[in-house]
């Protein structure tokens, strides 16, 4: 999972996101990876990602 997180962080850096945004997005993405597990991560659909993203936003509001 560390390799996936590293690649995701590099993508955020390439997009020139601020450090704070990188930290928050990486935290959410790590939760997402842990929620689905490494094997299921590759099978995740866009809808599942959006549903979890909405859930995480609602939890922090």
Automatic annotation (TrEMBL):
Gene3D superfamilies the record matches: 1.10.150.130
InterPro entries: CB (IPR044068), Integrase_recombinase_N (IPR010998)
Keywords associated with the record: DNA integration, DNA-binding
GO molecular function: DNA binding
Domain Core-binding (CB): 1-61
BP term (GO), one: DNA integration
Protein name, as recorded: Core-binding (CB) domain-containing protein
Species per Swiss-Prot/TrEMBL record: Chloroherpeton thalassium (strain ATCC 35110 / GB-78)
Source organism phylogeny: Bacteria, Pseudomonadati, Chlorobiota, Chlorobiia, Chlorobiales
């Amino acid at each position: 999972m560390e390799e996936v997180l590293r690649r995701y962080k590099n993508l955020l850096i390439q997009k020139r996101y601020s450090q704070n945004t990188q930290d928050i997005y990486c935290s959410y993405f790590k939760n997402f990876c842990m929620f689905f597990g490494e094997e299921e991560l590759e099978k995740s659909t866009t809808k599942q990602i959006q549903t979890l993203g909405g859930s995480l936003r609602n939890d922090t509001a």
